[in-house]
Amino acid sequence: MRIATWNVNSVRQRLGHLLDFLKEAEPDALCLQELKCMDADFPRREIEEAGWQVETHGQKTFNGVAIISRSKLEDVRRGLPGDESDEQARYLEGVLPLGTGVVRLASIYLPNGNPPNTEKYPYKLNWMRRLTAHAKELLAHEEPLVLAGDYNVIPEPRDAREPAAWVDDALFLPPTRSAFRGLINLGLTEALRATTDTPGLYTFWDYQAGAWQRNNGIRIDHLLLSPQAADRLAGVSIAKHVRGWDKPSDHVPVLVELRPQ
DNA sequence: ATGGCAGCTTTGAGCTGA
């Protein structure tokens, strides 16, 4: 089974790339972030006509997450629990029924948090606390679980081409990295680092200053696996070539392959 | 040292992203 995550930076701008990637990668499910549109404006018809099921949790202008899958997503949850006043569409969760069992899957768009000296940073840290609390509840189910998305967290210096440039950034500040470790320490496995120690693996390259051409990237899109999912981990890949397509997203897809149960 | 791009909306200058 193949599960992918991709921050598309506007699903309407990226529809062509999205359909191409689905055809090329043939995932069982693809988590999307940064739809930048309301549910009514999501290009649902085009994706369904290509043979996919679609669940969305959209928002006007900003944020928005979705899960595209071959089989229909069940037990769908929209929004991260823990703050009824939070109106930002950053979390979508459901259960994928499979021939050999089920996998619970979440599409996550964790807040950026910049600039750190504003209310945006405590919002990010609080969101991470809520995610950790919710993940703890999900882990109690002792089932295959994949928490996939744009975490806006650079876990370690080796996950940035120029770590010194990020030391004062919300993506790399010590409280951010500490909160990410706290999430992992619940018992989750970060899929890519379970398979390789190679530096220079990135999932985001800024549009500015020739970041892509200079390979000045950061690794901020992650898939976290419960023990029951990690036991089945067969491989991880970063679809780096997608960043070279015409009019690309600034993020590329990340994929995990899980063995059958 | 700085800004540089892209996408959104109040459709055009300002916000946001990372």
TrEMBL record:
The record, for PROSITE patterns, names: AP_NUCLEASE_F1_3 (PS00728), AP_NUCLEASE_F1_4 (PS51435)
Q: Which residues form a coiled coil?
A: none
The answer to keyword Transmembrane helix applying to this record is: no
Can you tell me which residues form the catalytic site? 109, 150, 251
Please provide the Gene Ontology terms (biological process) for this protein.
DNA repair
Q: Location of site Interaction with DNA substrate?
A: 251
The positions annotated as site (Transition state stabilizer) read: 152
Q: Which Pfam families match?
A: Exo_endo_phos
UniProt-listed InterPro entries: AP_endonuc_1, AP_endonuclease_F1_CS, Endo/exonu/phosph_ase_sf, Endo/exonuclease/phosphatase, ExoIII-like
Q: In chain numbering, where does the site feature Important for catalytic activity fall?
A: 221
**CDD domains (UniProt xref):** ExoIII-like_AP-endo (cd09086)
Domain Endonuclease/exonuclease/phosphatase: residue ranges = 4-251
List of residues binding Mg(2+) = 7, 34, 150, 152, 250-251
- The kind of enzyme this is, by top-level EC class, is hydrolase
Name the cofactor(s): Mg(2+); Mn(2+)
* Origin superkingdom: Bacteria
Its EC number is: 3.1.11.2
Task: Give the matching NCBIfam families.
Answer: exoDNase_III, xth
Family that this chain belongs to: Belongs to the DNA repair enzymes AP/ExoA family.
**What is this protein's name?**
Exodeoxyribonuclease III
In which organism is this protein found?
Bosea caraganae
Annotated gene: xth
